[in-house]
Amino acid sequence: MGPHHPSTHGVLRVRLKLDGEIVRDADADIGYLHTGFEKSFEDKTYTQGITFSDRMDYLAPPINNVGFVSAVEKLTGVDVPPRAQAIRVIMMELARVSSHELWLGTTGLDLGVYSGFFYAWRDRDLALDLNEAYSGVRMMTSFTRVGGVAWDLPDGWLDQLQKFIDVMPARLDDFESMLTDNPIWHQRLKGVGVISAQDAIEAGVTGPVLRASGVNYDVRKAFPYCGYEQYDFEVPVGQNGDCYDRYRMRVAEMRQSLRILQQAVDNLPGGPWITSDRKVALPPRSELSKSMEAVIHQFRLVSEGFKGPVGDVYAFVESPRGELGFYLVSDGTNKPYRMKVRPPSFCNLQSLRKLVQGVLVADVIAIMGSLDFILGDCDR
Amino acid sequence: MSVNPTDTLVQRLGDRFKTAVQESSDFRGDLSVVIEPGALVDVARYLKAEEGFDYLLYATAVDWPARDPRFTVVWEVRSLAAKTRIRIKTTAAMPDPHVPSLTSVWTAANWHERETWDLFGIKFDGHPDLRRILMPPTWEGFPLRKDYVSFGEPVIFSDQKLEGLEPDAIRG
Amino acid sequence: MGELKLRETPFLTGRAAGPTPLNALGNNVLTTQIDKVINWGRSSAIWPALFGLACCAIEMMGAVGPRQDISRFGSELFRASPRQSDLLIVSGRVAIKMVPVIRQVYDQMPEPKWVIAMGACASSAGMFNNYAIVQSVDKIIPVDIYLPGCPPRPEALLDAVIKLQRKIRGEPLVKRPA
């Protein structure tokens, strides 16, 4: 099944051993999108690596960006000012909403909900417009820098974001009214692909899939980063661990993301958007004409970047797929010695073998959809 | 100031496994221990069963060509209940690097170890299904080693002379 | 030999010449060349194959979405089977493992077929000059339109489709360029 298949969410090949329509065994064959990210990171400076990090989990690039720089910031011990943290939270939650929307659209498409795809893109285009207004690019924002974010929010952006936040709940209600009580949706998803909490932990699963099985683990609550501890939001937890619960998780997460967005907009702190540590962050352009030191810092940062201490760290963020981690090993130079990415999709996909045993082929599609993996993330 | 649980964890490991625990460090809040390969599975079982590290995050390796042993193989596990992490490291030397597999302790290590074999060439003894996962099955070479040259195509700039270059390099 | 006489009334052509079978149809019949008709038909209903590889696939989906509707341009449906599609939009980076798959999918498509290399990775490997990515999909299959961008906007993909349509309309019927 695959790699060229409409429902494999990328180029995944699954070898299914079938007995009629029932699956006896499955072997997921990945690597059809292996891009050598980790090798590429090794010969780019820390700042250059940020543009690469977007392309891994390409449905929510801002989250990859934040994960990447979090690892570098943890290594170097650089502080991030509160405004930068809030901007990061805003962009991440926007990415989470747009990623889950797309998930809803494409999983619906796999299961026959053709109109859901168009609803999803209507909303996702709004979020992408916001991305574009902020960073210039619809998807691959590369908006973080070590120690903060690259640019301040443009004028009027917060108003546009407010319009988005106001419009979205009704649109989510539209989606829910179409799907949540739909008997076909129930039949396709309820009781399908059940994974117990114990099996999920054993298999290394994270994200909505783990939470649907009843384990209350969300990186944003368990190990808050970027100031998530100041925002009041709930983590939806399911009970049954089936595909339907995962669907409910993701829609509930979207609503919580909107809640976080509203709080972030209301309480956005002022101040600098990047650290003032000149060894790490570029000086503002206005300083360049006044201070020789600023020119020297600019030159060194642009030509060779900054050096990190020797050591290894692991930093992780909550992506829409699960826990996205970056294990960074540094040997004291301006480039990472080894940047290992802990991709949630890779880890979630490991559980596929167990999940599809004894189900129908059509259920395999529902299960793959509900796991919400992205091959760019999985293969790197 | 309460006792840091990770300090005592290292102490307990040291008491239990003595010389197998070669070193430990706590850099930026990340606890890591270097274990001798022979005792690795026992340490892992102990950590899972008695210290509650039930959740494997990842497994990978780091290539230090100037060092001997050349590879450092890393697993990181988390205790969901206690919200702590520990990084278990061990080493593997050329010419035939191999370490024990931890799939018997954490099944989630399966694909991670396959990937480490694929990209570094480190064998995991006891792994149920060690084959390439990301590269094509007939690929030769281990891409993430430091001596593996990675570029796909040399970049020709417009002011470079084209004579003397291989035909394939000239792409017009 | 009769002498040439100037007619009192000029030759009448078209509708003014009075009813003939062809004129009776009025403006209901167009005459043109067979090339043009067939190319017009081919270009107006290009059905792409669903071949999304990576990030560009998301923007390709965006082109299908309601804001930049690609079905306005004839691509009403993306067919899952290459045997039922005309256009292969290679959207995304092509990893080494994927090469035989792309070749097989391309070979399975019936003539006439076209290829758009969407994005910097399909056109020239983009930012990935390394061991894992094929340095441009035109090493595997012939490409008609290269579309730069990382990822290109859905509007850019529509522009590529329009250019492809123009290209198709200019093609001779019998001998298609390889």
What does this structure look like?
The complex is a heterotrimer of chains A (about 375), B (about 170) and C (about 180). With about 375 residues, chain A is mainly alpha-helical. Chain A is built from 17 helices and 7 strands. In chain A, strands 5-6-7 form a 3-stranded antiparallel beta sheet. In chain A, strands 1-2 form a two-stranded antiparallel sheet. In chain A, strands 3-4 form a two-stranded antiparallel ribbon. In chain A, strand 5 and strand 6 form a beta hairpin. The two termini of chain A are about 20 Å apart. Chain B is α/β, with parallel strands linked by helices and about 170 residues long. Helices cover about 20% and strands about 25% of the residues of chain B. The radius of gyration of chain B is 21 Å and the shape is elongated. Chain C is α/β, with parallel strands linked by helices and about 180 residues long. Chain C has one domain (about 15-170): Rossmann fold (3-Layer(aba) Sandwich). Chain C has 6 helices and 4 strands; from the N terminus they run ααβαβαβαβα. In chain C, helix 3 packs across helix 6. The interface between A and B is large, with 37 and 35 residues.
Quick structural summary:
By secondary structure, chain B is α/β, with parallel strands linked by helices.
Mean pLDDT of chain C: 81
Number of strands of chain A: 7
Order of helices and strands of chain A: EEHHHHHEEHHHHHHHHEEEHHHH
Structural class of chain A: mainly alpha
